[in-house]
Design brief:
Rossmann fold; 358 residues; elongated; 6-stranded parallel β-sheet
Length: 358
């Protein structure tokens, strides 16, 4: 994809722009952020095409389309400039989808981002972010950081039967990339497993606790497809959501709490991020430190009445964040951005005039 051209010429008459979604990393983590919302737009009559690796950009990107590219990591600044020139040549608009703080990526990915000086975050028409805190953090790279928050789907009916007294406790632990937080839970988890023979710790993916807890008390699962993950979460009464304080951690989204709320699973979460979402501990218990997560979970495991109260409130709160509730707003946002495409392209060229070079 080479060459350059201003977004000009006769306008394309259509109710909304065609969308080309480029998925850089396929996995269950992309289901909520990419697959579900754009498949919902397809069902609503939008012309959306979702492309997965290996990506052939010449085939994937159409003329006059809204390109939404999930987490690309270019080989170099020059390589990314070449790609953006090709997108502009098609008179298309590039939104760079980014859903985590750059400091929280694995070290090898951080190194690649630094090598190309975060070219993909700097050289795009706008960023497409998952929460306001992340948008503010990424404003140092780009002035236009749109907030498109995650929606929860599906949202099953409230289920209180698993919170009846005398049921063995199933506690879920399956947070991606929180190995340090999980290790801080280890001493308290070891004590709990010794003192409660009916406790089962249900783990999904890599937790960092492998081999450190009695294997006969751990129900270990690999990283699961999204539907299977939600079923596993639904089989548990409690979910542990530890997250250390920090500016980068504050840029995460509460999707884990929303998923637990949807599955009528009570949570202990914190200290970062979750406090406001738990609404004064009406929608879950907030931990003032990571070390407090397990003691609070033990309290909650022994109080089925409190669990029922929390999950009832959380389930009701989650309905306001259902994906279907957000679709109309998302549709209008994409229409609005498309109407501004000429102004956004002029601003892109003002920042990076070399994009007009062949």
């Amino acid at each position: 994809m080479a060459g350059s051209a201003r977004l000009s010429g006769a306008p394309v008459v259509q109710p909304h722009p065609p969308i080309d979604v480029l998925v850089n990393a396929v996995g269950s983590w992309a289901t909520v952020r990419v697959q579900q919302p754009f498949e919902a737009l397809q069902c609503g009559g939008w012309d959306v095409r979702i492309h997965e690796p290996p990506l052939d950009l010449n085939r994937a990107i159409r003329r006059h389309s809204l390109v939404i590219w999930q987490r690309p990591v270019p080989e170099s600044w020059a390589a990314w400039r070449h790609i953006v020139q090709g997108i502009r040549r098609r008179q298309s608009l590039l939104l760079l989808e980014w859903d985590d703080h750059p400091q929280l990526f694995p070290p090898e990915v951080q190194q690649r981002l630094q090598t190309c000086d975060h070219a993909q975050l700097r050289m795009a028409h706008a960023l497409h972010c998952s929460c306001p805190a992340l948008a503010r953090a990424l404003n140092s790279f780009h002035r236009h950081a749109l907030v498109v928050e995650n929606g929860i789907a599906p949202l099953p009916p409230l289920r209180l039967d698993k919170h009846q007294p005398q049921q063995p406790s199933r506690v879920f632990l399956g947070n991606l990339n929180r190995l340090e937080e999980h290790r801080l839970l280890l001493p308290a988890l070891q004590r709990w497993l010794v003192e409660d023979p009916q406790l089962t710790l249900v783990c999904a993916g890599t937790t960092g606790l492998e081999g450190l807890l009695p294997h006969n008390r751990i129900e270990q699962h690999p990283l699961l497809a999204y539907g299977a993950y939600r079923q596993l979460l639904a089989s548990c009464q409690l979910a542990l959501l530890p997250l250390q304080r920090g500016a980068a951690q504050a840029c995460k989204t509460p999707i884990k709490w929303l998923e637990a709320a949807a599955e009528s699973t009570a949570v202990v979460a914190g200290p970062e991020l979750y406090g406001p979402w738990l609404a004064g501990q009406r929608n879950g218990l907030w931990a003032s430190s990571v070390e407090q997560v397990v003691p609070l979970a033990r309290q909650l495991a022994g109080d089925p009445g409190l669990r029922q109260q929390l999950v009832r409130s959380a389930h009701r709160a989650a309905q306001d964040h259902a994906l279907e509730q957000q679709l109309a707003w998302r549709e209008e946002l994409y229409r609005h951005i498309w109407r501004l495409r000429h102004a956004l392209d002029r601003q892109l060229l003002e920042r990076w005039p070399e994009l007009e070079q062949p």
